[in-house]
Amino acid sequence: xxxxxxxxxxxxxxxxxxxxxxxxxxxxxxxxxxxxxxxxxxxxxxxxxxxxxxxxxxxxxxxxxxxxxxxxxxxxxxxxxxxxxxxxxxxxxxxxxxxxxxxxxxxxxxxxxxxxxxxxxxxxxxxxxx
Length: 130
Ligand SMILES: [Zn+2]
Description:
single chain, S-adenosyl-L-methionine-dependent methyltransferases, 3 helices, rod-shaped
């Protein structure tokens, strides 16, 4: 799914693409996907278990080579999860100004994803109390 499709569902016309304008705080970020990291850890644990079980069963050179690979440690998890988030004011006619927070994240490997938007009224039109 394209990012613009994610945003268009909410009727937010200027997402993303107006980064850095006044009143807008937004970012995108790549990070480790929790589901992919969990799967990679399980695969690593299985690899170590299989290696331990292979002692005396496989060729000694193969064992030594895999022993060295495992001693180097589990490879770092790739950053496959993209996050986009934004905070901004939105003027609502006949009402006031709301603060809008949007978040969208999705993994390009496994498809894990989440998006949500939250709005809170900040200022009611005509409220000039101090
Ligand atoms: Zn993933």
